[in-house]
Design goal:
The chain has helices at 14-27, 38-46, 98-112, 127-135, 151-158, and strands at residues 5-8, 53-59, 62-74, 79-89, 118-120. By secondary structure, the chain is of the alpha+beta class. It has one domain (5-158): Aminopeptidase (3-Layer(aba) Sandwich), CATH 3.40.630.30. A five-stranded mixed sheet has the order 1-2-3-4-5. Strand 4 (79-89), helix 3 (98-112) and strand 5 form a beta-alpha-beta unit. It starts with a strand and ends in an 11-residue tail after the last helix.
Length: 169
């Protein structure tokens, strides 16, 4: 692979982005979890306030990886940050520079915009990713646990129907 090039995605890249999202879901052993469609992604990217941005890495004209991200905020630092929601390189292109090109460009975007840091989540079992991220100076935040409310629980909570239950002590 020649040196990977990285560019910002446009709404016209919705199919490519969805292909990478599906590839990531398959790699993370959740192939049926993807509900997004290319039409939804395209409409979101064309909206007045897109919920995300995306970078695409290329080997020549071939898209080989992506990084989907959005702005977050650190109240403790008092500055915005860049949160990487998805980061993926096609398996046959891993270890050839596309991932590094993507993460370097993300760092440039963060610095250009005055963001204080990059953050993302990685599955505990994904040792290849852990090694790569450590090699660039990233470190895990072990003292935090990600929590989520979704689907029926979100619906109940938003409609006032959730009851407080005591966790076992």
């Amino acid at each position: 692979m020649t040196a990977a090039t990285v560019r910002f995605a446009t709404a016209a890249d919705a199919e490519i982005i969805l292909r990478f999202i599906r590839g990531l879901a398959e790699y993370e052993r959740e192939p049926d979890a993807v509900k997004a469609t290319a039409a939804e992604l395209r409409a979101q990217m064309e909206s007045a306030s897109p919920p995300f941005e995306c970078l695409i890495a290329h080997d020549g004209n071939t898209p080989v990886g992506f990084a989907l991200f959005y702005r977050s905020y650190s109240t403790w630092i008092g500055q915005p940050a860049l949160f990487i929601e998805d980061f993926f390189v096609d398996e046959k292109y891993r270890g050839r520079g596309a991932g590094l090109a993507l993460i370097k460009r993300l760092a440039e975007v963060a610095r250009e915009r005055g963001y204080s840091r990059l953050e993302w989540r990685v599955l505990d079992w994904n040792e290849p990713a852990h090694r790569f991220y450590r090699s660039i100076g990233a470190f895990p935040i072990d003292k935090w646990t990600v929590w989520r409310v979704e689907a029926d629980a979100l619906e109940r909570l938003s409609n006032g129907g959730a009851e407080i239950t005591r966790a076992p002590s």
